[in-house]
């Protein structure tokens, strides 16, 4: 069950106060960036004592080696653990590393796992590649399956991987129903909660065992850091910690610092991303060029009721399906955008637009789009300027359609 060291504090207060040790930092507000590989032991006795726990990290027994933790890492891990009400957090060099390490933690040779068909595509590639090579079999499932997931369980099913809303297509999953079913057979539930962040959805409260994040997105928030994290509940923490220690992945000291700094303003950034994205999504729904807007925070979204039941809010990323348009006209629209950059990743302060088409790699559900699909990230620019930019690009598209 989720737990917290500061239960009386609301999440924005936690973001401003956790992970700080003013006294230990000579009065400075922020922690120092500890650059270090080697840690020196004062005596051979201390060194041998450390060896007796296998060189792995053991909090409260001091530092042993740069990869095994620094005071800066402790501060960031504390914030992330508390936000999700977990037992502990590991830090990783990318969101994708958080995906792969979470799966390596819960599955091994001969095991079967279930993965949502709406998953971030590189997660699927890892399941079909390295995980398959290691002898783990993956079955994909309909993101709307809910408690029906039980029909897919086998004797060797060890984990269910969820991501809600789905990458690019924004289907909302009933995480609590899936987790209840998974618990009945002792399977672990993993959740990629990158889109919502712990501000808008707290996976462990819905029965998830391992919540993972691409901190590259909103934690750091400035399109300048790659990072990932996994927060585990009590049942899975030791296994996660050990797998992380064995695999040797860490996060560079400056990036640990930048992630901690990013988190301090995450709530305020997200409030703006959310309101601007909802405003622009509603405006896009009224546009004749747009067939559908895929944003679970809109009343028109097919999963809106489930979304409202599980989430406290939304963020800046959603998709739209345009009405059918010739390829040249669609390209003219994309090329005419000036405030929306064309590029992967998202979660920084700037707006982005990318075309997408998940149809070729879906395996158990079909995604049918009546026209070109675009994923937008709404940044911190003034939403009126963003609408004007889209309006101008639609006019260019209309001109090119003639
Ligand atoms: C971006 C993203 C990742 C991967 O994060 P990287 O830091 O780019 O490796 C994983 N899951 C989701 C949902 C993402 O959006």
Architecture (CATH level 2) name of the largest domain: 3-Layer(aba) Sandwich
Q: Determine the CATH topology of the largest domain.
A: Aspartate Aminotransferase, domain 2
* Low-pLDDT residue intervals, each spanning 5 or more residues: none
**What coarse outline follows from CA principal-axis ratios?**
globular
CATH domain class name of the largest domain: Alpha Beta
Radius of gyration: 22 Å
Domain module tally: 2
- What is the number of strand segments? 11
Strand line-up of the largest beta sheet: 1-7-6-5-4-2-3
User: Secondary-structure element sequence?
Assistant: HHHEHEHEEHEHEEHHHEHEHEEH
The residue fraction in helices comes out at 25-40%
Report the span from N to C terminus: 60 Å
Supply the CATH superfamily name of the largest domain.
Type I PLP-dependent aspartate aminotransferase-like (Major domain)
Q: What's the number of helices?
A: 13
User: What's the pLDDT, averaged over the residues?
Assistant: 95
Are any ligands bound, and if so which? pyridoxal-5'-phosphate
Which band does the percent of strand residues land in?
A: 5-15%
User: Structural class, from secondary structure content?
Assistant: alpha/beta
Largest sheet: 7 strands, mixed
């Amino acid at each position: 069950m989720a737990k917290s060291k500061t239960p009386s504090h609301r999440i924005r207060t936690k973001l401003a106060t956790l992970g700080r040790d003013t006294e230990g930092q000579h009065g400075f507000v922020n922690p120092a960036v500890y650059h270090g590989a080697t840690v020196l032991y004062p005596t051979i006795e201390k060194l041998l004592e450390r060896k007796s726990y296998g060189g792995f990290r053991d909090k409260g027994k001091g530092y042993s080696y740069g990869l095994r933790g620094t005071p800066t890492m402790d501060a960031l891990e504390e914030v992330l653990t508390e936000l999700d009400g977990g037992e502990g957090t590991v830090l990783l060099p990318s969101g994708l590393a958080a995906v792969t390490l979470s799966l390596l933690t819960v599955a091994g040779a001969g095991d079967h796992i279930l993965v949502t068909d709406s998953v971030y595509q590189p997660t699927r590639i890892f399941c079909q590649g390295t995980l398959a090579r290691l002898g783990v079999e993956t079955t994909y499932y309909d993101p709307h399956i809910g408690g029906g997931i039980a029909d897919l369980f086998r004797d060797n099913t060890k984990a269910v991987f969820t991501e809600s809303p789905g990458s690019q297509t924004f289907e909302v999953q009933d995480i609590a129903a899936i987790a209840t079913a998974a618990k009945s057979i002792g399977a672990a539930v993993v959740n990629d909660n990158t889109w919502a962040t712990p501000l808008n959805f707290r996976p462990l409260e819905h029965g998830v065992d391992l919540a993972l994040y691409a901190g590259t997105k909103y934690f750091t928030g400035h399109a300048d850091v790659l990072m990932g994290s996994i927060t585990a509940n009590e049942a899975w923490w030791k296994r996660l910690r050990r797998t992380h220690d064995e695999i040797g992945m860490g996060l560079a000291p400056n990036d640990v610092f930048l992630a901690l700094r990013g988190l301090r303003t995450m709530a305020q950034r997200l409030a703006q991303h959310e309101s601007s994205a909802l405003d622009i999504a509603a405006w896009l729904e009224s546009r004749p060029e747009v067939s559908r807007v895929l944003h679970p925070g809109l009343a028109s979204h097919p999963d809106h009721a489930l979304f409202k039941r599980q989430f406290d809010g939304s963020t800046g990323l959603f998709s739209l399906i345009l009405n059918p348009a010739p390829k040249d006209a669609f390209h003219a629209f994309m090329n005419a955008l000036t405030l929306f950059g064309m590029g992967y990743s998202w979660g920084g302060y700037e707006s982005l637009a990318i075309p997408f088409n998940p149809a070729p790699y879906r395996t158990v559900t079909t995604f049918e789009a009546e026209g070109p699909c675009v994923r937008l990230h709404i940044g911190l620019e003034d939403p009126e300027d963003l609408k004007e930019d889209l309006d101008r690009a639609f006019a260019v598209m209309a001109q090119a359609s003639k």
